[in-house]
């Protein structure tokens, strides 16, 4: 976790920025995730400001006005020679952004709120109940660099004087390192990075977001006529919601964990609509490929319906997803080796799987991911049929039945009852019931 500290004297301007659109229109769903008790009435249940920024500034500066009245108008490090113009309240607003690097994970509001409270206590700013200073924490999506982050704003004036920000950057670094070792949500992020991290650069993420935003844009003007800030705002919305490389990696990982043999893994990956190709040992070609030991790696390719290609090597999916590591947990008898060669050849030549009825097509081998796909497909079919127009509904029923047949074949469920066809009469509140 990365802290970044700045100081200022304009709480109204800072709050206006945090709850605004951002410098490049990148702010989305700006909302409060935590605050001291004296700031809570300034915000609604949705975390949006319930008062004007002038009123919020007055609430935020309450303790500062008390210090101004008793003759101590500045923080300790902004007195005397550090403030030759004798400005009251100079740099009284302490602003810190706590960020998780792009691609390392995204936390929930509740997790961030708990982290912020712990951070303030470790910095010596608040007591165990989170009080002692006026503070608030604001969240508004990912940063321009793709970091999940939260903004923390603190009034340095306290009830008993001023908080001394001496060495605050060093304290913040120590607090973040300690939390990374001690807090479960941050420890888990670190474990995932060490064990399961799917590698991608910010450049790759930005290229995807810009391409996707351009594809989805249907405004009154062309993409090229949009301003730089407008284009970045559209890209930021895509970046905040999607990262295909990460989703692909999770699917491949689920396939690997659910498989008992190499050939089963290949079939599972292909069943998810992904292409998988072997990386053969140097000097081995298609004509001389006869043993699975000649395969030293693999690549997975995803092609979206609108034309995007994403290609990942095994090393991009994490160190434990390399083929030699996966083989430690798979069956290695001669029959499995022959089946693996057969499936690798089928994958290379883009043919149907060599083994049509593998273990992965048995009901007891369905994974949580499989079930989530089945439920999602069933809901999509049911929603497509839910239309008032009779002709459209009839066409949707036919398309739904065809899709249902493809689902049954894809997951090897033909032996089950396919559906209750008595409920498929178009005239009577049509529904599609799937019995799994």
TrEMBL record:
What is this protein's name?
Relaxase
- One Pfam annotation, family name? Relaxase
The segment(s) forming the MobA/VirD2-like nuclease domain are: 89-183
Which residue intervals make up region (Disordered)?
67-86
What InterPro entries does this protein's entry cite? Endonuclease_MobA/VirD2
């Amino acid at each position: 976790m990365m802290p970044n500290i700045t100081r200022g004297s304009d709480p109204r301007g800072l709050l206006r920025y945090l709850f605004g659109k951002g410098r490049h229109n990148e702010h989305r769903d700006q909302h409060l995730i935590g605050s001291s008790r004296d700031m809570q009435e300034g915000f609604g249940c949705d975390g949006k400001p319930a008062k004007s920024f002038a009123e919020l500034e007055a609430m935020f500066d309450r303790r500062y006005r008390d210090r101004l009245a008793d003759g101590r108008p500045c923080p300790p490090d902004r007195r005397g020679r550090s403030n030759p113009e004798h400005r009251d309240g100079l740099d009284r607003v302490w602003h810190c952004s706590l960020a998780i690097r792009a691609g390392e994970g995204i936390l929930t509001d509740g997790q961030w709120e708990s982290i912020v409270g712990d951070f303030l206590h470790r910095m010596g700013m608040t007591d165990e109940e989170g009080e002692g200073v006026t503070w608030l924490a604001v969240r508004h999506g990912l940063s321009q660099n793709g970091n999940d982050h939260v903004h923390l704003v603190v009034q340095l004036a306290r009830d008993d004087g001023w908080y001394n920000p001496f060495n605050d950057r060093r304290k913040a670094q120590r607090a973040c390192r300690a939390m990374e070792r001690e807090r479960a949500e941050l420890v888990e992020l670190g474990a995932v990075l060490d064990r399961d991290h799917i590698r991608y650069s910010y450049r790759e993420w930005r290229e995807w977001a810009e391409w996707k935003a351009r594809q989805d844009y249907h405004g009154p003007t062309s993409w090229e006529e949009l301003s730089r800030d407008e284009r970045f705002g559209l890209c930021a919305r895509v970046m905040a919601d999607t990262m295909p490389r990460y989703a692909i990696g999770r699917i491949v990982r689920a396939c690997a964990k659910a498989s008992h043999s190499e050939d089963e893994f290949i079939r599972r990956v292909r069943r998810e609509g992904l292409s998988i190709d072997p990386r053969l040992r140097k000097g081995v070609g298609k004509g001389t490929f006869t043993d699975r030991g000649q395969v030293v790696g693999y690549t997975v390719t995803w092609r979206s319906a609108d034309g995007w290609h994403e290609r990942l090597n095994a090393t991009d999916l994490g160190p434990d997803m390399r083929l030699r590591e996966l083989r430690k947990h798979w069956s290695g008898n001669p029959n499995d080796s022959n089946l693996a060669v057969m499936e690798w050849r089928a994958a290379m030549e883009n043919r149907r799987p060599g083994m049509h009825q593998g273990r992965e097509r048995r009901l007891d081998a369905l994974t949580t991911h499989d079930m989530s796909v089945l439920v999602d497909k069933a809901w999509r079919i049911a929603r497509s049929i839910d239309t008032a127009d009779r002709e459209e509904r009839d066409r949707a029923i036919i398309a739904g039945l065809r899709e249902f047949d493809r689902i049954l074949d894809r997951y090897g469920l033909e032996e089950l009852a396919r559906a209750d066809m008595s409920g498929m009469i178009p005239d009577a509140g049509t529904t599609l019931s799937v019995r799994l």
